[in-house]
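re: that chain from earlier
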Amino acid sequence: MFEFRLEAVCKKTGARAGTFVTPHGVVNTPVFMPVGTQATVKAISPDELEEVGAQIVLGNTYHLYLRPGAELVAEAGGLRRFMNWKRPILTDSGGFQVFSLARLNKVTDQEVTCRSHIDGSPHVMSPEWAMRIQRLLGSDVAMCFDQCIPYPASRETAERALARTTLWARRSKEAHGKETREGQALFGIVQGSTFEDLRVRSARELMEMDFDGYGVGGLSVGEPHEDMYRILNALNPVLPQDKPRYLMGVGYPPNIVKGIAQGVDMFDCVLPTRNGRNGTLFTSFGRVNIKAKRYERDFSPLDPECDCYLCRNFTRAYLRHLFRAGEILAARLCTQHNLHFTIDLTRRAREAILTGSYPEFLARFNAAFKDARDD
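^ sequence. v structure.
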């Protein structure tokens, strides 16, 4: 069964260190979850995921429903066996695709009717649909079906989406209770755009239903970072201390360390893998565009402070060459590095919280992490 234990809280910032137990392993928080949209984290194998320190990965309900199909995954023994990942898995609900594929969707309180982005075929998504698909996938953590809206949004639009998210959360929990896979946890998702009072209202309505954890959705959709932090600051004292908090879709290192300081336990994002495949790398001194000409004859390691496979074995000049030559190895090495960096960042943050030194850790990181020139 799912169980969360809070181990330490930073008195100055509110940063938290904890542990949650799932049927397929223990996860230490804060934690970053690599995104495996289609039963794979792009450009990296399950063994390599373990090597970079991944504790839990995320699968995408909507995409796996369309291809290869949730029934096929269930027939294979569930998502873990299908992709040969031995550790826990969290699945999103498909609610984000209601937002990201809005041009293909029609949304009502009852359901979402949509057309596949692959072949245009018609489909119907609902809370009951989301719970059934996640049960078939066999994830350790399932997410409630919710409505994410774009930024900026009017208060009227935000209130309407909040009410629908609460309605869908109630239906999700009812359906989950009827059909749940044994041991599968269920998280509610807080909505409300950038309106603090709506966010607090959403959190309290969800807390009345007593979910296993709480996601914060609808951020990192174009709003200024300051608005994200303002919303997290409003939610930190409201969300229950004994349940994990999950900031959905956030993976930029400065956002992660700041989010941790505001009580967030879990993060996920495609940014580390997508940026890696395109040559933008995270390092201890900031963000680097390895394709820039300045690295053409730079025979030093990418990040002398990093002990990942890339930094131990290759130079900046070689990485630049791989990208210019169009070699697949470039995407693979840089994906591994960015995931290692991001996962290790949350590991080091956890250590700092446990030793009572998170404010110093945060200050050092913010002072060091800068964007390099892209010339």
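Residues 277-371 form one domain.
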